[in-house]
Amino acid sequence: MQLITPENWAVIHVGLIFMITCTLMVIVYVLSDSSNPIPGLGLYTVYFMAALLGWIAYTLKQVADIPMPVDVPSVAAILNSYLLFVATGQRAGISGGRYLLGLLCLGACLSVFFLSQEQMFIVHVSAAAVFFACTGVLAAARAWRRNNVGDAITAATTLIMVIGAPLALYQDLARDNHELGQTIAFGAHSSSYILIALGFLASVVIEYQQHLSHLATEDPLTRLLNRRGLENALHITLAHAARQQLPTAAIMVDIDRTAEINANFGHDVGDQVIRRVAEQLQRMSRASDVVARTDGEEFLLILPHTSLDAARKLAERIRESIAEHPLVINGQRIPVTVSMGVANVVGNVELDKLSQEADRAMYLAKRGGSNRVSSVESRPIHLSNNHGPT
């Protein structure tokens, strides 16, 4: 260990920073998906690369004793701290304060031409503390909003600089111990960089897992639940209905003449029709209702604590609303109608059986001329007389 000089420690340090940075970037870009881009990835990449260059400049200054007309490491530390703030703001979707702190960053960097290295140390540590404090606020806001532990790690990490900066300045100014002050600042910057890298990586991995979970339970076209997501969402609700012997209703919705729409206007228009119907279903459903897309042009609504009559009334309102709002493409009105089947059960609910009954009623509505609502229960099937224009 005695053979490891301070200069060797500096080289080892920058080597570790280099490996951490490269490993982080490889993992993040492997996880990234062009259809689901990682917020702030570009700016975070710039931050990590710029920070790496700053550490290299600092190491060259310490090891090679290269004369520098200006204090490049201090300027790099200021710029990197500001880049971290901007990257975190972009990731959090918050742009406030960017220009004000940008002016502060510019002023701090330009002061390198007028101040000594000792004075520049004070400026760079103070500016970095301000930028890290603001970064912590943004990261904490995103961690709270997204429930992401990775962002919470980033927010907690900024406290290292917020606390370390006053300690470094105290040793430098009050104790006149410039070397110890630099050591504290160096340690704060190093540990903060590594923990921020880990926090960012954790945040990306958590969101990637959430994205995979959404893909498994969510329909990508309409953002509604799929069949698996429907079952997961209803697990507790259906168990409660069984215990309390409460009514549960189901409405099966099928878009009429989708094959004709796709043939005449193309599949893109067909997708717009599906999204339009999905929006109508979500808008007219209650907060307690669960809406899912179960097939290409079929949707299933599960209505807890709802009688058959109440479900039929809701189905009629939905049918009328969809029929009254045709899709307009390039000035051309494309009529959209749906056929709906309603079923109801009290007490224990078998989701498959309930949806099959609603599906049976829906096919009866189809055979009755489309744009209709039919219902089924333990008694014979009933076809409504109400129907819109064919």
Features:
alpha+beta, 12 helices, Alpha-Beta Plaits, 6-stranded mixed beta sheet, 390 residues, 2 domains, two-stranded antiparallel sheet, elongated
Structural class call reads alpha+beta
The major pleated sheet works out as: 6 strands, mixed
Counting DSSP E segments of at least 2 residues, the number of strands comes to 8
How far apart lie the N and C ends?
88 Å
Radius of gyration: 31 Å
Overall average pLDDT: 84
Tally of DSSP helical segments: 12
| Topology pattern, helix = H, strand = E | HHHHHHHHEHHEEHEEEHEE
Task: Compute the number of structural domains.
Answer: 2
Percent of residues in helices: 55-70%
From the spread of the alpha carbons, the general shape counts as: elongated
Strand order of the largest sheet: 2-3-1-6-7-8
β-strand amount: 5-15%
Low-confidence stretches: 378-385
What does the model show?
There is one protein chain. The chain has two domains: 6-217; 227-383, Alpha-Beta Plaits, CATH 3.30.70. 66% of the residues lie in helices and 11% in strands. A six-stranded mixed beta sheet has the order 2-3-1-6-7-8, with helices on both faces. Strands 4-5 form a two-stranded antiparallel sheet. The radius of gyration is 31 Å and the shape is elongated. The N and C termini lie far apart (88 Å). It has helices spanning 6-31, 41-63, 72-92, 98-110, 117-146, 149-174, 178-217, 227-244, 258-265, 267-284, 308-323, 351-367; strands at 247-255, 290-293, 298-304, 327-329, 332-334, 338-346, 373-376, 382-383. It is an alpha+beta fold. It contains twelve helices and eight strands. α3 (72-92) runs parallel beside α5 and α6 runs antiparallel to α7.
